[in-house]
Amino acid sequence: MAYLLMFVTLLHLITLAMLFIATMEKSWWVWDGLENSDLWYNCRFDNVTGTWLCASSKETEWLQAVQVLMVLSVVFSSVSFLVFLGQLFTISKGGLFYFTGLCQVFAGLTAFSAALIYTLHNKEILPNSKELTSGHFGYCFILAWVCVPMLLCSGVIYIHLRKKE
């Protein structure tokens, strides 16, 4: 039981860190390594100064939907972890972690929705200045997709997990 508890806690923390990185980092779409776009900024690398020059992303309805859903996913997962820690000390013997599991499942569904919207509507989200064919999805986009099954699996594990002590 102790190993399962450590596994679930570690899985939750890893997934939460990956979600946070996917939401805040600068690589949802990449063009030739010198220009990229994320949920908040469009950035271009300046070879002269050796710095990234960033401007706010054009606010479209699809981009705002992805932003809100990714932030909600981080919030749901954070709340889930805090509730789990609280339930460890307050739930009675044999109790189930339903609320924690439901929060994790909601986090997975919101991350799924955000990644799906970005996949299907990247032409409307990305700036018009670059050809989409010359770019590709970045590692933050891939992290968001990797988080979806991890969140859903941990949510199911939480729902079936019973307090033994």
Automatic annotation (TrEMBL):
<dbReference type="InterPro" id="IPR050579">
    <property type="entry name" value="PMP-22/EMP/MP20-like"/>
</dbReference>
<feature type="transmembrane region" description="Helical">
    <location>
        <begin position="96"/>
        <end position="116"/>
    </location>
</feature>
<protein>
    <submittedName>
        <fullName>Epithelial membrane protein 3b (MAM blood group)</fullName>
    </submittedName>
</protein>
<dbReference type="InterPro" id="IPR004032">
    <property type="entry name" value="PMP22_EMP_MP20"/>
</dbReference>
<dbReference type="GO" id="GO:0005886">
    <property type="term" value="C:plasma membrane"/>
</dbReference>
<dbReference type="InterPro" id="IPR004031">
    <property type="entry name" value="PMP22/EMP/MP20/Claudin"/>
</dbReference>
<keyword id="KW-1133">Transmembrane helix</keyword>
<dbReference type="Pfam" id="PF00822">
    <property type="entry name" value="PMP22_Claudin"/>
</dbReference>
<keyword id="KW-0812">Transmembrane</keyword>
<feature type="transmembrane region" description="Helical">
    <location>
        <begin position="136"/>
        <end position="161"/>
    </location>
</feature>
<feature type="transmembrane region" description="Helical">
    <location>
        <begin position="62"/>
        <end position="84"/>
    </location>
</feature>
<comment type="similarity">
    <text>Belongs to the PMP-22/EMP/MP20 family.</text>
</comment>
<keyword id="KW-0472">Membrane</keyword>
